[in-house]
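Hi there,

I know you've been waiting on this one. I reran it after we fixed the sequence typo, so this is the corrected version. Both the input and the resulting structure follow.
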Amino acid sequence: PALTHQFPQFRNHPQRLFPARDTLRMEAGNLFFKPKTETSPPGIIRIDLVNVQTGVHNLVLEGVPGFHVEVSGKGAEDSEKVELKAGTYTYYCSLPGHRAAGMEGTLTVR
């Protein structure tokens, strides 16, 4: 609370103020994510999304409102931190048709 008062831009995402316990590098391409499965310890996790082909893609976590990274064009990168408890999370591209075409994976936090 005291830190988010001093830095109001972090009020809705206080995890951005703290170091990540783990960093996951995810690649997005034309209708795929690589890897399709990831594992991480619980806590603050940084997810780096890199576009290895053309097009626009994003990565959202099912059941985690507000988490979103997006890349546009080959070589584009975006990253965000998220605090996750132990559990299984589905990540996917929310652009129309992308998830149904296979842009989905599983993140296990344990």
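Quick highlight: The beta strands are 22-29, 32-34, 37-40, 43-51, 56-61, 68-72, 77-84, 87-92, 104-109.

Best,
R. S.
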